[in-house]
Amino acid sequence: MPDTDRQQRLEQLEEKLAAAQQAQEPAPRKEEHYSQAQHAWRMVVELVAGLGIGFGMGYGLDWLFGTLPIFMLIFTCLGLVAGVKTMIRSAQELQDRQMAYEAEQDTADDVRTVKDTAGDPRKDEGA
After folding, report:
1. Coil, strand or helix: which one is 45?
2. Relative to the CA of 92, which of 54, 67, 85, 103 has its CA 20 to 30 Å away?
3. How high is the pLDDT of residue 117?
4. What separation in angstroms does the CA of 54 have from each of 31, 80, 98, 100, 116?
5. For bias kind Basic and acidic residues, which ranges apply (predicted)?
6. Contact 79, 55 (CB under 8 A)
């Protein structure tokens, strides 16, 4: 008799544990898709950040050495170059993702086409 009571309590405890674990499971993450505007803003921010960092470094060096704004001009140009280079890298990354997605879609379409025509002898005859 005590074994059946103990068995029932263990089963109830296991059910409670399973329910608690299910409640604490994180929701499945959805794949994030960003709009083109978000990507464009990212690139603008990268360009402005490069310019700002270059300007700040140049201004700081000019202040430190007491020179004309030569370092400010040089480092602002370098910041512009770095920002453009970062933008190009981001655009290449986006293009690579898009190409991979399109290739995946083409492969899936090809597989569906092969499955559709594989069992139908009329498609082989051209009818």
Report:
1. helix
2. 54
3. 64
4. 36, 8, 32, 35, 59
5. 109-127
6. yes
